[in-house]
């Protein structure tokens, strides 16, 4: 069963993981969010009970 041979797939996974960790991830983390979650005020919604007609 050749698909159980880990030699080519492990190398591909390792190179992909290293590329993501060392090159792509720092670039993505350097972006700042335009909408900060802390700048929004929390809103409270009033809920009312539902009156079911068959109860």
UniProtKB/TrEMBL annotation:
Location (main, coarse): mitochondrion
Pfam family for this entry, one: ATP-synt_8
InterPro entries in the cross-refs: ATP8_metazoa, ATPase_protein_8
Entry's Gene Ontology cellular component terms: mitochondrial membrane; proton-transporting ATP synthase complex
Localization annotation: Mitochondrion membrane
Keywords: ATP synthesis, CF(0), Hydrogen ion transport, Ion transport, Membrane, Mitochondrion, Transmembrane, Transmembrane helix, Transport
Compositionally biased residues, Low complexity: 37-49
Molecular function terms from GO: proton transmembrane transporter activity
Family, per entry: Belongs to the ATPase protein 8 family.
Protein name as annotated: ATP synthase complex subunit 8
Organism from which the protein derives: Hylia prasina (green hylia)
Designated gene of the protein: ATP8
């Amino acid at each position: 069963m050749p698909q159980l041979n880990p030699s080519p797939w492990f190398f591909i996974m390792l190179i992909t993981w290293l590329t993501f960790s060392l090159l792509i991830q720092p670039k993505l983390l350097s972006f700042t969010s335009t909408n900060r979650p802390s700048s929004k005020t929390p809103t409270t919604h009033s809920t009312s009970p539902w009156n079911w007609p068959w109860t």
